[in-house]
Amino acid sequence: MTSPEPVDVVLIGGGIMSATLASLITELEPDWTVEIFERLGDVAQESSNPWNNAGTGHAALCELNYMPEGKDGSVDPAKAIGINEQFQQSRQYWSHLVETGAISEPSTFINTVPHMTFVTGEHDVTYLRNRYDALKDQPLFAGIEFSDDSRRIAKWAPLLMTGRRSGVPFAATRVEAGTDVDFGALTRQLFASAIDNGAKLRLNHEVRRLKKNRDGTWRIGYRRTVGRAPGAIDARFVFVGAGGWALKLLQKAGIPEIDGYGVFPISGQFLRTDDPAIVAKHQAKVYSQAAVGAPPMSVPHLDTRVVDGKPSLLFGPYAGFSPKFLKNGSILDIVTQVRPKNLGPMLSVARDNPSLLTYLIGELLASRKKKVAALRAFMPTADGSDWELITAGQRAQVMKKDPKKGGVLQFGTEVIAAGDGTIAGLLGASPGASTAVPIMLDVLRTCFPGKADEWDEALRTMIPTVGTTLNDKPELADEVLTRTARVLGIAR
């Protein structure tokens, strides 16, 4: 049955992106009708689920792939600074919601966990020192520490050093004011706030079709996953935040902007322990260098997680392969995405990334013993019997056409919007969740350009520094970081 009057906004997908956009829109336009469609029985069950991601509040404090080494050995902090700027906007918006009572006690979704890097070998130690030198005077990275002293590193993270053999150079950096974020808890609270403001959530509703009506609205065809009854609804604006399935739905919408895009699915596993004696000895997220040929999202890390108030440790990720675009997707996903306009770019990516394929095959063939050995490179005293292997979420890496190479594998996230702004979707992976607020602000600016001036004052109330930067304004950066840390109850 189709609704007689189009709703203003339909959001497809029950993850952090749709939740953030629902929260923003219902605050900016309380009279708009907003409906959210989620094919599963609850929200935050795919990549936003806390056990399907590492929960790192991605501010580029510890992720080395955001500052790759140049051919001349130099490191450029620009990308790291940009990602940190985006995370600060997310922090500001979350702080606004806490102050207004829209979401509850912040410790339910964000907690202080120092962010560290740890490397071994002369080359990587030199690189890490250069990275530290490039960041230490940047206002958004204030407080970063560097050490190659085993005693100091042992104080930061005892499990890294206990039992470690001498003779191999090593070094670490640390930022005390890192965070662990339970994006599942945050997603649920954002949706609850949006529903309180009038939004409607339809669980167990799978969107099957998207078709443009003659009047410019969109016909959304869906099917209930319980009972399988079909239905349809019209909407003036559609956002597709359906993870890996965003590609499939945007293809069904037929917008030319999606031409040439494909995705390459990568699954992941982590080793996890809840043993209180082990967990108590490690309070940090420690990232290192990715293996040769590994995608940046596969950077090994040993992480403190806080889920439902209980700390655990995760190590990984171990990459795997599944043809599905979602954990609860279809084994035909990787095939049904193929179109004449994206086949060439996808074949070019396969041709130009043999090291990635070699890496994935090696990961697929790796035994549990080999996985535990990788953990011991971080934690020399690790006992495999203390850790269980869990399967994390699916990541859909973007493949897109490139005028020079034919096609490239792109890391990060990308908003795809129709030229008329009536439909948009999000493709890609990390650091997506941490930067959900600026990404959704980009969607609003792109799809509702005529509302920019009208929304400006309200947005500045929610996010005081929207439209500006912090790192080039030390006093403002200190003021904003101090305020949001106080509101969120985390370290400055």
From TrEMBL:
<dbReference type="GO" id="GO:0008924">
    <property type="term" value="F:L-malate dehydrogenase (quinone) activity"/>
</dbReference>
<protein>
    <recommendedName>
        <fullName>Probable malate:quinone oxidoreductase</fullName>
        <ecNumber>1.1.5.4</ecNumber>
    </recommendedName>
</protein>
<dbReference type="GO" id="GO:0047545">
    <property type="term" value="F:(S)-2-hydroxyglutarate dehydrogenase activity"/>
</dbReference>
<dbReference type="Pfam" id="PF06039">
    <property type="entry name" value="Mqo"/>
</dbReference>
<comment type="pathway">
    <text>Carbohydrate metabolism; tricarboxylic acid cycle; oxaloacetate from (S)-malate (quinone route): step 1/1.</text>
</comment>
<keyword id="KW-0274">FAD</keyword>
<comment type="similarity">
    <text>Belongs to the MQO family.</text>
</comment>
<keyword id="KW-0560">Oxidoreductase</keyword>
<keyword id="KW-0285">Flavoprotein</keyword>
<dbReference type="GO" id="GO:0006099">
    <property type="term" value="P:tricarboxylic acid cycle"/>
</dbReference>
<keyword id="KW-0816">Tricarboxylic acid cycle</keyword>
<dbReference type="InterPro" id="IPR036188">
    <property type="entry name" value="FAD/NAD-bd_sf"/>
</dbReference>
<dbReference type="InterPro" id="IPR006231">
    <property type="entry name" value="MQO"/>
</dbReference>
